[in-house]
Design brief:
By secondary structure, the chain is mainly alpha-helical.
Length: 78
Amino acid sequence: GEFLTACEADAGRCADYLFDVIYENSVGDQLLGFCIPDHDTPGQITGTVVSWLTARPELATAETDPALLRAMEANYPC
C-alpha cells in the first residue's frame, strides 16, 4: 500500500525503488524469476508493476519487496 501511495507522489522515486529491489535480488547466485525486456523503459516497467499491484488490493498489506518481485514475475516471464 505504501509503495503505491509513494508512486502517486513521485514516479521517479518509485522506479528507483523498484530497480533497487531488482538489483538487490539479482546479485550473486540468485536466479530471478523474470526477464527485463530490452525495449521497455524503467518508467514503463514501473507503470506495469504499479498497474498489476493496483489490480490486486489483497496485496496492499503484503511486504513491499516480495510483492514487487511477484509483480515482475507475473508480467515479465522469461
